[in-house]
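hiii so um. not sure if this is the right channel but i have a protein structure encoded as C-alpha cells and i wanna go backwards to a sequence. like what aa goes where. can anyone help
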C-alpha cells in the first residue's frame, strides 16, 4: 500500500513511519484505495482526510461522517490510547483497516490562584444549574451540521499572550480539578475576539456557572469551537459567521482569575488541541 501525502515535511516523515505499522489486508489484485490523511496522529490531534464517498470510515469503531466529496474529520482526545484503528470499506465493500500509532504527550501541572472560591467548591444548591448548563454544551457539540468549514485553515481568535495550554492538569486555589482543554489568551475585558473559521453559531449563553459568557460555533461534521469567559456575545444562535468576524468580547466570568479568552475545539465530545489545529497543514 502507499499513501498519497500532501502535507509538509514533518507530517510526511511522520506518515512515513505509519507506513511501516499500517498493514491493511488487501483484496487480491483489486486496486487498493487508501485514505488520504492530513494532520498529526497525537493526543489532541486533528486529522482531516478523504476517501471515496460511501467508504464508511471509522476510528476505533466510531463512525465518521463524510461530506459529499468524501472528505471527513476526526480527532484524538487528551488521553487517547497509544494505538487506534482506522477502518473503511473498499470498492467491493470489504472492510479495510490500519493501525495508527498515537503519539503520547506529557502535560504540565498549572496552579491557578485567585479564582472565585464558589467555582472551586460550588454550593450544592447550584448543582442543578451546573448540570443543566453542561447538558446544553453537550447537546450543542453533539450536533451534526453538513458544512465544509472544517476543511479550511484556522486563524487565532485573539492576539494576546498565551497564559494556558491544552491538557495541563489544573489546580485551582490549591484544589486539583479537571484538566484544562483550551488555549488561554490574556486580554482586557471588552477586547473583540474573532471566529477562527467559518461556522454556524449553535450556542449562546450569557453567563454559565463555570464558563461565564459561552459561545459555541460549529465548523461542520462535528468540529466545533467554544469560547468561554466572554463579557459580551455579538452573534445569535443559528447565525452563520465568517472567519475573522468579531463574534464576542473578552471577559472574566466563571472560573477565571482575570480577563482572558479560553478557546476550545471539539470533534463531537472529543477534545482537540487548538494549537495543533492552528498548525495543521492545509487540506488538499
Ligand atoms: Zn482557560
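sure thing!! here u go:
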Amino acid at each position: 500500500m502507499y499513501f498519497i501525502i500532501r502535507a509538509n515535511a514533518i507530517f510526511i516523515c511522520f506518515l512515513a513511519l505509519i507506513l511501516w505499522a499500517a498493514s491493511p489486508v488487501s483484496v487480491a489484485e483489486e486496486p487498493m484505495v487508501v485514505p488520504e490523511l492530513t494532520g498529526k496522529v497525537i493526543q489532541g490531534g486533528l486529522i482531516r482526510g478523504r476517501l471515496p464517498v460511501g467508504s464508511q470510515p471509522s476510528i476505533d469503531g466510531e463512525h465518521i461522517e463524510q461530506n459529499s466529496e468524501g472528505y471527513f474529520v476526526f480527532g484524538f482526545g487528551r488521553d487517547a490510547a497509544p494505538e487506534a484503528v482506522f477502518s473503511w470499506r473498499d470498492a467491493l465493500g470489504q472492510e479495510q483497516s490500519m493501525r495508527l500509532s498515537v503519539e503520547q504527550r506529557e502535560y504540565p501541572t498549572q496552579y491557578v490562584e485567585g479564582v472565585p472560591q464558589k467555582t472551586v467548591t460550588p454550593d450544592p444548591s447550584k448543582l442543578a444549574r451546573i448540570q443543566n448548563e453542561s447538558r446544553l454544551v453537550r447537546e450543542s457539540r453533539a450536533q451534526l451540521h453538513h458544512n465544509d468549514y472544517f476543511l479550511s485553515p484556522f486563524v487565532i481568535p485573539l492576539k494576546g499572550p498565551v497564559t494556558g495550554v491544552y491538557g495541563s492538569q489544573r489546580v485551582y486555589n490549591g484544589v486539583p480539578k479537571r484538566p484544562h482543554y483550551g488555549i488561554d489568551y490574556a486580554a482586557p475585558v471588552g477586547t473583540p475576539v474573532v471566529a477562527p473559521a467559518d461556522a454556524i453559531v449553535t450556542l449562546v449563553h450569557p453567563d454559565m456557572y463555570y464558563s461565564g459568557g459561552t459561545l459555541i460555533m460549529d465548523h461542520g461534521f462535528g468540529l466545533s469551537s467554544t469560547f468561554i469567559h466572554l463579557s459580551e456575545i455579538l452573534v445569535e444562535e443559528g447565525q452563520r459567521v465568517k472567519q475573522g468576524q468579531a463574534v464576542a468580547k473578552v471577559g472574566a466570568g466563571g472560573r477565571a482569575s482575570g480577563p482572558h479568552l479560553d478557546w476550545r475545539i471539539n470533534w463531537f465530545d472529543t477534545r482537540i488541541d487548538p494549537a495543533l489545529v492552528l498548525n495543521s497543514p492545509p487540506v488538499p
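oh and The two ends are 20 Å apart (CA to CA).
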